[in-house]
Write a structure and sequence with these properties.
Blueprint (H helix, E strand, L loop, with lengths): L1 H12 L7 E7 L11 E6 L5 E2 L4 E3 L5 E3 L4 E2 L4 E5 L2 H8 L8 E3 L10 E6 L5 E7 L9 E2 L9 E2 L36 E2 L5 E2 L14 E6 L3 E8 L5 E7 L1 E6 L9 E5 L3 E7 L5 E4 L2 E2 L7 E6 L9 E2 L2
Parallel strand pairs: 7-8, 10-12
Antiparallel strand pairs: 1-2, 1-11, 2-7, 3-6, 4-5, 4-9, 9-10, 13-14, 15-16, 16-21, 16-22, 17-20, 17-23, 18-19, 23-24
Length: 310
């Protein structure tokens, strides 16, 4: 009976596994300096905080790196950067030692590597493997939002393929696919070094916008802007030179936070037709290229996703 009691106590005291942390974005091949400009973004998609003390980042070879001790709140992003201060300066987002942490990432290979996240008891929480052919200067971000797939291939069969579908499944897209321009990162911007990504931001946990905003064409030149919303609704077009937030200062939507910033400005207000559509084709100069654009319903204050003028 004594043995049974000890066994029961041991079972109840065994630490619970809380594997709700995902690798949502990473930069493995920056344009300027591989030794300082690489970074990995982590996101807690669960409902409870996760203590990352004792957690590690590994590959299938010899890399075994400790993650700085930090508690990751539910819905929170952090960036692990080879040079935390340099990351903040280049990207213009984050705070060193708060959500941007100095970390030895073991030099992510440009031609193919693995990122494997283990918790404090050595259990695998998230893993991915990418092949040769990643695009220099472009971060790879997680498109999938349900987090049901936590293993994206291995060294022998990489599952993150920016030249095609992920995990060898034509019906599954985990990370972005730049070859076919499918699943572009609408939140991405270009930093001071020319790298493109959306660190410390993401669409996870957010409700799908009811306003569809789609861009076509190329800047400088004619850019096609299509909006689909509600018939007869009026939509405000707001641009900025950087990601937000920007708080609407006046009017019906006072206090609404937009995802554009940096000299944010209202460009026009347009009413949707009987089908809920607005189509614009402005001829944009070079100064507008790279601007962030977001559309807001002036009555309900609903927002589209923020996109970048191509």
């Amino acid at each position: 009976m004594k043995s049974l009691s000890v066994l029961t106590l041991t079972l109840f005291c065994f630490p619970a596994f809380a594997g709700t942390v995902a690798v949502t974005e990473f930069m493995n091949d920056p344009l300027v300096d591989d030794t300082t400009d690489e970074w990995i973004e982590l996101y807690n998609y669960g409902d409870l905080p996760v203590d990352l003390t004792g957690w590690t980042l590994d590959d299938e070879d010899s890399d075994h790196k400790d993650i700085p001790s930090v508690v990751l709140d539910a819905g929170q992003f952090i960036v692990l950067a080879e040079d935390a201060a340099g990351f903040v300066a280049a990207w213009g987002v984050g705070t060193v030692d708060v959500d941007v942490l100095q970390a030895d990432l073991g030099s992510l290979a440009n031609t193919g590597d693995e990122i494997i996240l283990h918790d404090s008891v050595g259990q695998q929480v998230w893993s991915l493997a990418y092949p040769d052919g990643e695009v220099a200067g472009e971060a790879t971000y997680l498109v999938n939002t349900d987090f049901t797939v936590t293993s994206h291939g291995d060294k022998a069969a990489p599952g993150v393929n920016r030249r095609g579908t992920d995990n060898g499944d034509a019906y599954y897209q985990g990370y972005d696919n730049t070859l076919t321009s499918d699943y572009p990162d609408a939140m991405a911007w270009t930093n001071a070094d020319g790298d493109t990504g959306s660190p410390l931001s993401g669409h996870y946990g957010a409700a799908a916008p009811s306003i569809d905003l789609v861009l076509g064409g190329a800047c400088p030149g004619v850019v096609d802007i299509s909006v689909h919303g509600l018939a007869g609704s009026s939509y405000a077009f707001v641009t900025g030179t950087a990601p937000g937030p920007f708080t609407v200062p006046a009017g019906t939507c006072t206090g609404t936070e937009l995802d554009v910033g940096g000299s944010a400005a209202l460009r026009l207000v347009q009413t949707a037709d009987a089908y809920g559509d607005i189509t614009l084709s402005p001829d944009l100069g070079a100064g507008a290229c790279g601007s962030h654009l977001q559309v807001m319903d002036t009555a309900t204050c609903e927002l589209s996703e923020a996109v970048i003028l191509p």
